[in-house]
């Protein structure tokens, strides 16, 4: 079934992968970005671009014409604190089903990636963990499916990709990783099916 899918953060690397894969599957795509000029797709591929600044909720575009929104926003260089929380709030208020991208090793999954992974998260993401937890809470309260993704790398689409509820995740010995292509594909799988409903899930290769 062809869907109308909005991608928040479509100009980022993961957002761009989401846009490409959604188009490959035949969906209509609405790219939600702060800077429209940064969205680059082939002229033969139809993407509607809407200027969307999460820190300006009054000016955020209407989303009542889309079936589902997938968020791929993160905390970019130069962003002050609050961008993730602001993004979660505007999508919660939009009233559209949402698939929210969070991070394994934050909040309730703080130990789920293993002890080494937990240490790496504290070292490199420590100052952002509290904001990630708050953004997840807002998204969950609004009924979103929240992906706690492990470290994202470049690489091919995994043939063994799958999604597990956080409660069913086996704690790995080594820090887990997932390719961007695999993550984008699994986010779209959930956007299409809504199989996991409200809750935290983990995408795996």
TrEMBL record:
Descriptive protein name: NAD(P)H-binding protein
Pfam families: NAD_binding_10
Domain NAD(P)-binding: 9-189
Originating organism: Streptomyces javensis
